[in-house]
Amino acid sequence: MLVLAAPVALTVWRTGEGKLLSTVLVAVGVVALVAMGVATVAPSRVRGLTAAFGIDRVITVHRWLGILAIAAALTHLVLAVVRSPKLLNPLAASLSIQWGWAATVAMVGVGLVAALGRRSGRRYEVWARVHVLLAAASLVLAALHVFWLGHLISDPVLRVVLSALALGFLAVLFLRWVWRPLFSRDGAYVVYGVRPEGPSTATLVLAPVHMHRGLRFHPGQFVWLRLRRSVLGTEEHPFTIASSARVTGRLELTVRDAGDFSATLASLPTGSRVWLDGPHGAFTSAPEAPGLVLIAGGVGITPMMSMLRTLAEGEDRRTHHLVVAQRPDEPLFEPELASLARRLDLRVTRTAGRRVDAALLGSVLPPEPWRGELDYFVCGSPSLLAGSLAALEQLGVPAERVNTEQFGWSGPLPVPDRDRSRNAG
Question: How many Å separate Cα 161 from the centre of its chain?
């Protein structure tokens, strides 16, 4: 909020000696410019942001800032036309005004693509590239509009502030779109093998190319995976890390069968390279909690496995509860969970088709007041999240103790045939 409010307040202070309409016009324009800049930077995988607030909150802020930017840009345009009706015809206006018109059109395009693009049935990567390119175009055109007009940059204080913001935005975007995809060595991994976990689920086992550069992550975080290095034009998908955070020489990503990208992953021969961007996410546990309650639906158990494997490696002595809602024909990690239950004080409850509700959780959780002191983690489909949250509220669990992650980020991975799996090691 400070990044957005400070430039606006400074603009009003430095330009507020003229007419009220002119002051509001300039201030609203700065709101549109800065909001679009922050909205572009927010989802640029700044690890400090995603680790502190979680990807869901970051994306929510991104959406609201985008809406604010579009509304402010349209308001700026309307006020400009009210003050000078001849601006209604951009073809007859100066080049600076034409840049402004183009920036506004690009911002509206960003909003339309965000609202309608995913519903048209087009591939995600096409939608994402159009969205990114339109956002970049709106920022460049808005910057040209400000530069050509010269009203703001003629003031020495505003010139320094806006230049500092622009350099900060460019640094983040360079890190996201150039440095990490093309030059960073931290995310270089090699395929060690593919291990089947069930009829439609498998684990991709990766080892870092540079052994001393294995990713340091917290259990429950995720990474973005791509198959080749490129600034644009490369498909990538997010996958939750399933392996222990205490094992840095190997990374495991467990995903379900459902798409072309995953089919490509399943066919990768041992030794193939992939590139990871991460870790990201705030779906992680606090060490001071007296115990964890993990509620997982289907392959939403992946972050739970990372948590439990990490706890087992650390010889944790607390009591933990795991509630698993899975298909009867695919009891994921059943042998390993039995082993973890012997290494940990872990109580595993499989729903066997039962709905996760207050009655089920009430039979699993300890009585009050102890249940209110535990940390709760819920990961799965929207229906599982809705039912679990309602049940926990009914049981008196404080909302601040509950952490959620809606499953659906991870791309799927078809299970390879058993012969190929064994050959892959």
Answer: 29
pTM of the complete model beyond 0.85:
no
pLDDT tens for 31-61 read 898 898 888 888 887 877 777 777 778 888 8
Q: Give residue-wise pLDDT tens across range 176-205.
A: 878 888 887 778 899 988 887 777 778 889
The helix-helix angle for 55-83 and 95-116 (nearest 10°) equals: 140
> H or E element: which one contains 319?
strand 319-325
Distance CA 131, CA 110 (A): 6
**pLDDT score, position 333:** 87
Q: What is the C-alpha to C-alpha distance for residues 377 and 322, in angstroms, rounded to an integer? A: 10
CA–CA separation, 169 and 295 (whole Å): 39
Q: Is the pLDDT at 312 greater than 80, yes or no?
A: yes
CA 72 – CA 31 distance, rounded (Å): 6
Give 336: exposed, middle or buried? Use CB within 10 Å, 0-12, 13-18, 19+.
middle
Rounded distance, CA 139 to CA 135, Å? Answer: 6
pLDDT above 90: percentage of residues in the chain = 26
Rounded Cα gap, residues 56 and 399, in angstroms:
17
- The answer to whether the beta carbons of residues 389 and 404 sit under 8 Å apart is yes
Task: Measure the CA–CA gap between 103 and 263, rounded to whole angstroms.
Answer: 40
**Closest C-alpha to 177, from 36, 66, 47, 44:** 44
Q: Are 336 and 374 in contact (CB under 8 A)?
A: no
Cα 302 from chain centroid (whole Å): 16
pLDDT digits (tens, 9 = 90+) for 393-418: 999 999 889 988 876 543 333 333 33
| Gap between the Cα atoms of 329 and 311, Å rounded | 28
Residue 399 CB neighbour total at 10 angstroms = 9
What's the chain's average pLDDT?
82
The order of strands in the sheet holding 375-380 is 345-350, 319-325, 292-297, 375-380, 402-406
